């Protein structure tokens, strides 16, 4: 019955052309989309170091997601794994040998144990590593590579999550402790074993890159929410742009633009722990709180600038420098200012602060606090002071402004960024003195390591950790005579050495950077005086969501339905019959402008007369003009002596005083006037 229906369908279908019906839209292959965003080189070879080889092979050794997925689908279409094992006389348990393709990240290749292929275990779904019965090794998640062992297999340790480095016998005897989070050991013997892990050591997503544009000046603030769906970028052009990966297409346009404080640069952005609000710190003295969609929720109060004691002011009195939301409590934030204080606020009360912290100074005065930071648990506060000192306060009952840790000369210039490690043992500090210092919080007298020659010209340049905190990274600024451009430098936390330098922009300086743990993507903000943007580095085989979502979503093409004809507006009240009567105020203004209706007096003539009016040179009236011309009116004031004209009224004023003289008649001395000497001159 089914065969008859199939024949009938084929017969009916033969009467219609193959192109009949709705045509499916051509789909751009995923591989070509990622190739369009691929970086020219994953690592800047000119600035590479001896440790760059591992990073380079990591970026280039893994194929793109599209190529691996395509080969895997082709292999599934041809035959299933069970049929391949039955057909081949010697089945190879490693699919990479047959297809020369790694199937999905991270799944490293499976090495043979003791060189015996016959003893390999059965490969079950979904592609687990082989288990040898003689060795008895347990392979824990997330599927680390199984190293080849030359000696006794019983002495090998258990490989636990997530990819810890192997520990040698010498280290176990010496009792060396490998500090968290999973740093590779420092001995040369162990380095050879760890190098056997190869590509699994540092996996930096650098193969592809997209740029979020829109700002006209350097991007000085960056914040990515904890889910990795929304990105905030603030700039020196006074604006904040909001990007949403889920609603953004390949054009990479922001869905909202804000101007928190007119004429003030945006300096810091910080999401709340629940990612429902964010803090915006600008160059003004008042920080603002916005909700997730960019609507203003409130603005903190400004203090009285005429009060000298900062603890008595209700808020900051000068421009803010930094701010950060509490990592655990969604009602508490921290701000620092140029007025020389740090303040803890409650977002439910914008009128007053909870705590005022005044740093310890060598001399009394006001030294700006350039940056501030919470630790991972929100139990400590670190502040970078303008005199180069680093001060740390532990939040405990009865704590005050006296710091628990005080490093007097941490840097020789302003500190731009501070970052705690998650275990609370390491503190990173970045400064304008072109250095990055690593501090041990248990011994803050001297830094563990100082990395120099890292140009920094911006007060917002920060330092960040990788998700597993094996690496930390920071950006560099562009110098006038330099040819390297803005770089992103990666450092190994355990060995305290430079791993690689990645070129981000040839002309723009790298200011803010972060490595998102869920997306496994690196964000770096760049810019100069003319433009700014946010570069997102990712790898299709290592990263998830984020940039991968918006790159694969093509912008919607314009259709006929999108055409909007400009309508012709017909105004029925345009005719005089339907016009509204103008207001009385406008009528009065119109009358005042009309000289005839307002009876405005004529302005006197200056110069010769014209238009029937006599000029002001010989008198304004016609009678005066005629009398002067006829000689009837004589002007004698030019020929008189002003002294004699006044003294001729002296006798009258002495005999009949009216105003001043009667009041002072008893006390005023008699005036003595000098006699005129005109007669002597005539003689």
TrEMBL record:
Organism: Rhododendron griersonianum
Residue ranges with Polar residues bias: 44-59
GO cellular component: nucleus; site of double-strand break
CDD domains, per database record: WD40 (cd00200)
Repeat listed as a keyword: yes
Lineage top rank: taxon: Eukaryota
Protein name: Transducin/WD40 repeat-like superfamily protein
PROSITE patterns: WD_REPEATS_1, WD_REPEATS_2, WD_REPEATS_REGION
Annotated region (Disordered), positions in chain: 1-201, 661-683
InterPro entries given in the database record: WD40/YVTN_repeat-like_dom_sf, WD40_PAC1, WD40_repeat_CS, WD40_repeat_dom_sf, WD40_rpt, WD_repeat_GAD-1
Acidic residues compositional bias, start-end: 188-197
WD repeat start-end pairs: 212-253, 313-355, 408-449
Taxonomic lineage of the native organism: Eukaryota, Viridiplantae, Streptophyta, Embryophyta, Tracheophyta
UniProt keyword Mitochondrion present: no
Record's keyword terms, sorted: Repeat, WD repeat
Bias type Low complexity, positions: 64-89
């Amino acid at each position: 019955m089914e065969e008859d229906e199939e024949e009938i369908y084929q017969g009916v279908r033969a009467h219609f052309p193959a192109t009949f019906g709705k045509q499916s839209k051509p789909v751009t292959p995923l591989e070509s989309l990622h190739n369009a965003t691929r970086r020219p080189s994953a690592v800047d070879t000119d600035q590479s170091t001896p440790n760059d080889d591992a990073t380079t092979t990591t970026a280039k050794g893994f194929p793109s997601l599209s190529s691996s997925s395509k080969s895997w689908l082709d292999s599934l279409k041809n035959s299933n794994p069970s049929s391949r094992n039955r057909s081949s006389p010697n089945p190879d348990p490693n699919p990479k040998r047959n297809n020369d393709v790694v199937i999905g990240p991270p799944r490293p290749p499976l090495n043979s144990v003791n060189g015996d292929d016959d003893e390999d275990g059965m490969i079950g779904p979904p592609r687990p590593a082989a288990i040898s019965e003689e060795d008895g090794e347990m392979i824990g998640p997330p599927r680390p590579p199984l190293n080849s062992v030359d000696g006794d297999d019983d002495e090998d340790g258990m490989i636990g999550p997530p990819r810890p480095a192997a520990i040698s016998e010498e280290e176990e005897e010496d009792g060396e402790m490998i500090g968290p989070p999973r740093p590779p050991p420092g001995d040369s013997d162990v380095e050879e074993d760890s190098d056997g892990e190869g590509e699994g050591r540092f996996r930096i997503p650098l193969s592809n890159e997209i740029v979020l544009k829109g700002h006209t000046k350097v991007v000085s603030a960056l914040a990515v929410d904890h889910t990795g769906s929304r990105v905030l970028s603030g700039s020196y052009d006074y604006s904040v742009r909001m990007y949403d990966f889920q609603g953004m297409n390949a054009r990479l346009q922001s869905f909202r633009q804000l101007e928190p404080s007119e004429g003030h640069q945006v300096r810091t952005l910080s999401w709340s722990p629940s990612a429902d609000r964010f803090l915006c710190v600008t160059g003004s003295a008042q920080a603002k709180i916005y909700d997730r969609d960019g609507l203003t929720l409130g603005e903190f109060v400004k203090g009285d600038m005429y009060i000298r004691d900062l603890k008595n002011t209700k808020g900051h009195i000068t421009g803010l420098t930094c701010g950060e939301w509490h990592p655990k409590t969604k009602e508490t934030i921290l701000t620092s200012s140029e007025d020389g204080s740090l303040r803890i606020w409650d977002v439910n009360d914008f009128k007053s602060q909870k705590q005022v912290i005044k740093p310890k100074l060598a001399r009394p005065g006001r030294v700006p606090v350039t940056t501030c930071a919470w630790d991972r648990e929100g139990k400590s506060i670190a502040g970078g002071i303008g005199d180069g000192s680093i001060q740390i306060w532990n939040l405990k009952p009865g704590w005050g402004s006296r710091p628990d840790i005080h490093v007097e000369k941490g840097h020789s210039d302003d500190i731009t960024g501070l970052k705690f490690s998650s275990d609370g043992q390491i503190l990173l500090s970045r400064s304008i003195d072109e250095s990055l210092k690593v501090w041990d919080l248990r011994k803050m007298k001297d830094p563990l390591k100082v990395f120099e020659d890292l140009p920094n010209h911006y007060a917002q340049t920060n330092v960040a950790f990788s998700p597993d905190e094996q690496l930390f990274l920071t950006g560099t600024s562009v110098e006038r005579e330099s040819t390297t451009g803005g770089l992103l430098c990666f450092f190994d936390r355990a060995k305290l050495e430079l791993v690689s330098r990645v070129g981000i922009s040839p002309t723009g300086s790298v200011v803010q950077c972060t490595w998102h743990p869920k997306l496994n993507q690196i964000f770096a903000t760049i810019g100069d005086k003319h433009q700014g943007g946010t570069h997102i580095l990712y790898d299709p085989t290592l990263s998830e969501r984020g940039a991968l979502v918006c790159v694969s979503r093509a912008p919607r093409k314009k259709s006929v339905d999108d055409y909007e004809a400009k309508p012709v507006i017909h105004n029925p009240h345009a005719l005089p019959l339907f016009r509204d009567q103008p207001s009385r105020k406008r009528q009065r203004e119109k009358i005042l402008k009309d000289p005839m209706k307002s009876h405005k007096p004529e302005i006197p003539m200056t110069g010769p007369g014209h238009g029937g009016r006599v000029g002001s040179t010989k008198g304004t009236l016609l009678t005066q003009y005629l009398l002067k011309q006829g000689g009837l009116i004589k002007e004698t004031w030019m020929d008189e002596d002003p002294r004699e004209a006044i003294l001729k009224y002296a006798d009258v004023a002495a005999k009949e005083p009216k105003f001043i003289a009667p009041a002072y008649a008893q006390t005023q001395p008699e005036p003595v006037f000098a006699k005129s000497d005109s007669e002597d001159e005539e003689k």
